[in-house]
Amino acid sequence: MERTAIRRRLTWQVGTVTEVREETATARTIVVDVPDWPGHLAGQHLDVRLTAEDGYRASRSYSIASAWTGTTIELTVEQVPDGEVSPYLVDVLKVGDPLEVRGPVGGWFVWKPEQEGPIQLIGGGSGVVPLMAMLRAHAAEESTRPARLLYSVRRPASVIYVHDLKEVAMSEDVDITFAYTREAPPGETRPPARVDAELLKSVAFPPEEQPTVYVCGPTPFVEAVADLLVEAGHDPARVRTERFGPTGGPR
Fold first, then answer.
1. Do 18 and 45 lie in a common domain?
2. I need a labelling partner for 213 at 20 to 30 A (CA). Which of 48, 53, 113, 234 fits?
3. For residues 156 and 159, what is the distance between their CA atoms, to the nearest angstrom?
4. Which residues belong to any copy of the FAD-binding FR-type domain (predicted)?
5. 203 in the same domain as 167
6. Could you tell me if residue 113 is inside a domain?
7. Alpha-carbon torsion 190, 191, 196, 197, what sign?
8. Which residues contact 1 (CB under 8 A, 6 or more apart)?
9. Which domain holds residue 169?
10. 148 with 120: CB under 8 angstroms?
11. Does some domain include residue 249?
């Protein structure tokens, strides 16, 4: 049974795009129906493969944005300049098109409802995608475990999931903080700046509460935040990281 499940995850499947939603000027969410989808955990990713008319193939890994709700999965893709795959997914792919996927992949950077303790999520840019899947799974499970999201983003126009995050923030068990690095909205008390030790101390769960911390984003962001967390006294074994970009994994 286990071997069958592994085989299914490693087999390319053809899904059908059922919806696309524009998130920002450079990012969109793609909803795909995959009839034989084996299910996934919040935080996992999958591979997407495109095949050109001349037979050339290119594949990339993308985090899954949705909680598992059957055969439908959601990907949120941010366009990478000069990329091979993301420009097609963001600008060309349309409802009704086939999309070849394989997965899910990953077992470390995941959240499971049965986990003990608070959940601290820290995302940079499109690194919020797998964290959004965790928040959605948290809501779907009606979990009462306290959760906090610290979302570092360049400017208000770059925020992915604007409406979804507002809805999530209505839960008494979830707190959301934005850290703007280039341009802050009117009324924001903190001037534009990167995530630092002072901010983490003021908005993140303290080490003594033993949260499981998930950090996702570009490699420099992830490494800097992880170092700050350990310096603040967080147990390194409870700090889980996911990097993306040229030297990282899923986007």
1. yes
2. 48
3. 6
4. 10-111
5. yes
6. no
7. negative
8. none
9. 119-244
10. yes
11. no
Residues paired with 101 in a beta bridge: 13, 48
- Return d(Cα 134, Cα 119) in angstroms, integer: 9
Asked if residue 142 and residue 38 are part of one domain, the reply reads no
Question: For residue 85, what is the domain's CATH number?
Answer: 2.40.30.10
Nearest one of 187, 163, 186 to 176, comparing CA atoms: 163
Residues 15 and 94 occupy one common structural domain: yes
Query: What residues have CB less than 8 Å from 169, skipping those under 6 apart?
Result: 175, 176
State the total domains in the chain.
2
pTM greater than 0.85 (yes/no): yes
Separation CA 17–CA 50 (nearest Å): 14
With cut-offs at 50, 70 and 90, classify the pLDDT of residue 82. Answer: confident
Q: Give the HSE-up count for residue 39: Cα atoms under 13 Å, Cβ half-sphere.
A: 5
Q: Cα–Cα distance between 204 and 175 in angstroms, integer?
A: 10
Round to whole Å and give the CA distance between 19 and 145.
Answer: 32
Q: Looking only at Cα atoms, what is the longest distance across the chain?
A: 57
pLDDT tens for 198-218 read 999 999 999 999 999 999 999
Cβ atoms of 244 and 126 closer than 8 Å: yes
Alpha helix ranges (H) inside the chain? 2-9, 86-91, 128-140, 162-168, 197-203, 219-231
In CATH, what number is assigned to the domain containing residue 161?
3.40.50.80
Q: How far apart are alpha carbons 239 and 230 in whole angstroms?
A: 8
